[in-house]
Amino acid sequence: MTNDKQRITYWTKASTSHSCWAGSNRDLQEKFLKTRKLNAAAGGNSLCTGDGITMASDAGAVLCKTFGYCPCEYGGTNAKASRPAKQDKYDQNYWFKFGLYGNLLVDAEGKRFINEGLLCDYPMSYGSEQIVLNAPWYGIVDQDYVDAMQTQGLYEYTTAKGATAENWFIGNYFKGRILDKLPEDAEEGLAEGWLAKADSLEELAEAFGLKDLPETVAKYNEYCDAGEDPQFGTSPWYLSKIQTPPFYAVQCEPSAWSTFGGVRTDDKLRALDAENQPLKGLYVVGTDNGSLYYSPYYDVPGYCYGLCIDSGYIAANEAFDYINM
Prior knowledge:
The protein is an alpha+beta fold. The protein folds into two domains: 4-71 and 256-323, FAD/NAD(P)-binding domain, CATH 3.50.50; 94-252, Flavocytochrome C3, Chain A, domain 1 (Alpha-Beta Complex). It has helices spanning 26-33, 51-58, 116-121, 128-133, 143-151, 153-159, 182-192, 201-208, 213-226, 303-323, and strands at 9-11, 39-40, 68-71, 104-106, 137-142, 195-198, 247-252, 255-260, 270-272, 278-284. Strands 4-5-7-6 form a four-stranded antiparallel beta sheet. A three-stranded mixed beta sheet has the order 1-10-9, with helices on one face. The longest helix is centred in the C-terminal third of the chain and has 21 residues, at 303-323. The protein is elongated and about 75 Å long. Mean pLDDT is 86; it is low at 10-20.
C-alpha cells in the first residue's frame, strides 16, 4: 500500500504564465463568475480548463466562497475577434481600445454603468467587476474622437483637456500611442460583427439592441458641456461629446490573464475539507488558492506575482517537512 507521504499532490497556477481555470471552460465561468463572456487573454489558446479545482473537490477539498479574475488591461475583446490582445497592449485590433479609453461606455440596454475614467486608470482593480457583470459592454465614439485618436492619441488629447502628471494616474503610459491603424482595423471589426458604424444614434442603437442609447448620449453630452459628471463623477478630461457622425459602437467582452479563487487552505497551504481539517499531502498554491486571493483584483501592483512565487516556496517547504516527519 502506498504511503500517504508518497502521494503528495502539489500544483501551481501562476498568472505569469497566463493560466486561467475558466479560460477554456464556460461552464465554470457561469458557475463561479456568473458569466459566459470571459475570454482568455492568450488569444483563446488557454489550456486551463479547471482540472485542478475539480481534482481537489473530488479529493474532498472544500472551495472558498469568492472567485474572481485577473483582467487583461489591454482593452476589450470579443470571442468573435480574430485578433484579441495577447502579449502587447497594442497587438490587438485597435478598436478594442475604446473599451477602456475613458470614452462613453454603455451596457446592453444602452445605459451608462461605470465611471469610465476609473476603468481607464485602474482597469484591473476598479473596473474588473463592473465589466464582467455588464458584459457585453459597448464603447461609443464619434468621428471626431476617432480622428483625435489617429492624430493626437489619448495622451495629447487628454492633457489638452486638463489632465496632468499629478492628477492622471495612467497618463504617461499613453505617450506616443497613436491609433493609426483604425481605418483598416474598422473593416475587420465590421466584417466580424463586433463593431457597428452608423450615421445616426438611432441606427447605431439598432445594430446591437441598445434601446436607451440616444437618451443616454443626450444626457452624457450635457455633462460634457457642463464639464461635470453628476451621475458617476468621471473626470472632465474623459468627457467627450458624441456629436459628429458617423458614430461607432464597439462590442466588448472581458478577458483575463488568469482566474483566481478556489480551494480553501490553512496557513501551510494545505487543502481543507468541509470541517476545515487539512487533507494529507494536498497543497494548493497560486491563483487556485481560494484563501490567498479573491475578488476583486487587489489595488496592489505585482501582488499576483508575489502570490504565485511565495506560495510555491511555502508549500514546497511544508511538503518537504511533511515527507521527512
